[in-house]
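Lab notebook, bench 4. We co-purified these components, and the gel suggests they stay together. Before we commit to crystallization screens, I want a quick structural picture of the whole thing.
Request: model the full complex, all chains together.
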Amino acid sequence: MKLLIAVIKPSKLDEVREALTSLGIEGMTASEVKGYGRQKGHKEIYRGSEYTVHFVPKIKIEVAVSDELAERAVQSIQDASRTGQIGDGKIFVLPLEEAVRIRTGESGAEAL
Amino acid sequence: MRTTRLATAIAAGAAAFVLSATPAVAQEAGALNGANTAWILTSTALVLFMTLPGLALFYGGLVHTRNVLSVLMHCFAIACLASVLWLVFLYSIAFGDGGGANALFGGFDKAFLAGVSVDALWGDIPETVFFMFQMTFAIITPALIVGAFVERIRFLAVLWFCALWLTFVYAPVAHWIWGGGALSDGGWLGGNGVRDFAGGIVVHVTAGVSALVAAMVIGQRQGFPGEITPPHSPVLTMMGAAMLWVGWFGFNAGSALTSDGNAGMAMTVTHISAATASLTWMALEWLRYGRASLVGIVTGMVAGLATVTPASGFVGPLGGLVCGLAGGGICFFATPWIKHRLGIDDSLDVFAVHGVGGMTGTLLTAVFAAPALGGLGHAAGATVGSQLLVQLGGIVVAAVWSALVTLVILKLIAVAVGLRVSPEVEIEGLDITTHGERGYSL
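Here is the predicted assembly.
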């Protein structure tokens, strides 16, 4: 199993969710986060004063998938969230040791 | 009207009323006018609403999340403190009869509203209504200054500053211009005194200049200008600004002290100036920075309202339009100039918006009062030129007095209780360190 952590543009959340759902992925966790990469934040101007905003609002999606699905899931996140502009985000793939469905006690890929 | 004692009080009130700069004239001396009374009762509520919650939200949205409550707290506590002090002696200093010293201050005869019975009149409205209406002006003026020193001032220093500043700056200047003192008709500036309909000098110049001095004495916020965080909630700022706009109808049209055409025209020019200045700021921002921002358009609105305040009862629609254009335009350029050229961290631009706007409008009052420009006319013997000099004199006297007294007050407070929080507290934020609360639990 793999744990995918994707940091994406907030406007792309719905497209990513739909793409993953169409692969048969049944759940995910999304959070509002702030961060920066090579984009290095941005500038905002209020009343003629320039403010540097280092941490830009992003959405972080965490989704656990079976090994077979992992590669396709990464591809569909990338396809759905790519604009080609700076600040599109990143996808991290981590090995996932165990998963447990709390209600039933199922474990491993069964629990996803 | 019912007893001799009352008749004396009414005569005194009417005499002071005639001396004040407001152009309204009591129709029948000694008779209460129900329509006027109802409108000033309404206006009083509108002007209080400008501070609570209008100005508090307007300012609260412009600061960092860690300081939002402290700003709301400053505005609320100032409103309470100013109200009590207004009863205790400020009203008397501003609108009492100071006898031999009347040019300078109104004395203490009306402390605790002594001698002001439930039937006492000020012109043709109850004096209690006039007292309350004027109280709301004394509330918002020190609250405006809060914008200069947010995010770094000690709370106790805010309270001391409010009390001393109202006593030695606001109440005397209100007396000089509105209470028959040195800057009104027959005072230092001659037979025709300063024309300040609703507080271009009394409110905006005093607050703006004092804010500039306060920002210089207290010093910049840590990280100014490069590492300051942007306004945390333009949403709150817009809501507060909209309340200010509505409340300003009471501020300016209420200052007619009558429910008539003078109030109607004051409301008209007030609204036109606010709208024009908003568009002016928006257009300039769009041209200069490529975007029209919400914080920008509402800042333009405040600039337009501050600018039209002194003029509102003396000018016509053309005056309203020009006040909006001039106020929006001049304040737009003054704001970055004060912050970046002069490096003064008047954090929420109190001087650049209120001070500059109030001065601009005070001068424009002399010009656009001219009937040829749609105004309601100058006093007998006054011309545009002569009134312009009087207006300028009023600005200079009020500005110099505000600056000097503010400087002295802040130096005293610095020694007695300290002005500024520690650098650690400033980074952690005033909300949790000073007030033990957080604005947002996320």
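The interface with chain B takes residues 44-49, 51-53 of chain A (CB under 8 Å). Worth comparing against the SEC data before the next meeting. The first strand of chain A starts at residue 2 and ends at 8.
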